[in-house]
Amino acid sequence: MTRTMLAAFVRAPFQFELREIPVPTVREGWALVKVEACGICGTDLHIASSTTHRLTTKPPTEWQGFGHEIAGVVAEVGPGVHHVREGDRVVLESGSFCGTCELCRNGRVDLCNKGPNFWSNESMGFAEYILAPKECLVPFDGLPFEVACLAEPLGVALDMTYTADIALGNDVLVLGLGPIGLFSIPLARMKGAARIYAVNRSGGKRADLARRYGADEVILSSETPVEQIPFRRGGVDRALVSASASAVLSAMPVMNYGGIIAFIGIEYGPGALLQFDANEFHFKKLQLRASHAAPALYFPTCLQLLKDGHVDGQAMVSHVMPLERIAEAMMLLRDNRSEALKIVIKP
After folding, report:
1. Given CA atoms 74, 77, 83, 86 in this order, what sign does their dihedral have?
2. How far is CA 236 from CA 106, 171, 189, 257, in A?
3. Cα–chain center distance at 150
4. Among 57, 240, 251, 326, which residue's CB has the most CB atoms within a 10 Å radius?
5. Annotated catalytic residue within 2, 4, 25, 43
6. Catalytic residue at 56?
């Protein structure tokens, strides 16, 4: 008898469907993982809301599986999988590197997007089981599943922090207090930031968590525009921007000489285009650097940070909901961002 499982599917704009489908068959080099927790990412909102995105292999108006912040238990391993076995707890890298191309052989695995991944699966993390390649399986222990699945967004924040090249004594601006921006606050502190200014449009739980994570000041841009913030040294040395593309333009005027802006964000339509004064950019010797955590790296480091309590993962999880309420959870994150931080689905 064919085993079946429950899996969620999405198509734009904001349509969701739960289906009973066959459990995937294990093949060589892959493992079947029982999903115990999967976080909702801003990318999932883009997939659900946009008719123009380029985030998956299918057109956005076609039904597709989704969910990539995954923690679970290995249910079955295929031939060639040796570093994990049945019963092991694992988190899944959302994409890996190939290890054989010129970039990988020259030590730039961070630039390789040719590695195995699970994005072409019929169903993904918002399902009872997922099939994943061995390269994406990262074993862990000592963490609850709803916290372990945060290794993926924490890895994105760590990539942005590395990209900004924060140095000891830098004053840092964090623009956008979604999970990525919030996670970057304790990371920036550990990198040696002297003062951290956290900016978001609205307050609520996100502002509260920014303070808890170590922000020295939390500013609401709806009340005080970034350009009018009284920075103690006239500006900041580093900016971590995980908001809309236009937020980059807000950061530029407040950068100190030689400042670096790290940006991670997705925008479509006219808002994706930026226009700025190249002379100001040149004479202030600024740098604008893109952070795009694909392939997904640094999972062992992130798991250790969570396990040691250097980053409080439990504080990030505002809601835990069953798979049957995936549509409700997606709407909640879309419509109530001041109160919804990280929503974790547990199939």
Report:
1. positive
2. 34, 5, 14, 9
3. 8
4. 240
5. 43
6. no
DSSP three-state, residue 94: coil
Q: Which CATH class is domain 4-139+312-346?
A: alpha beta
Tens-binned pLDDT, residue by residue, of the chain (347 aa): 569 999 999 999 999 999 999 999 999 999 999 999 999 999 999 999 887 777 777 888 899 999 999 999 999 999 999 999 999 999 999 999 999 999 999 999 999 989 999 999 999 999 999 999 999 999 999 999 999 999 999 999 999 999 999 999 999 999 999 999 999 999 999 999 999 999 999 889 999 999 999 999 999 999 999 999 999 999 999 999 999 899 999 999 999 999 999 999 888 888 889 999 999 999 999 999 999 988 999 999 999 999 999 999 999 999 999 999 999 999 999 999 888 999 999 99
Asked if CATH classification 3.40.50.150 holds for the domain at 156-290, the reply, yes or no, is: no
Q: Is 43 a catalytic site residue?
A: yes
Catalytic residue among 4, 25, 46, 163: 46
Residue 70: strand pairing partners: 38
Could you tell me the residue ranges of all domains in the chain?
4-139+312-346, 156-290
Angle at 211 between CA 250 and CA 172, to 5 degrees: 40
Q: What is the pTM of this model?
A: 0.96
CA 152 to mean position of chain CA atoms = 6
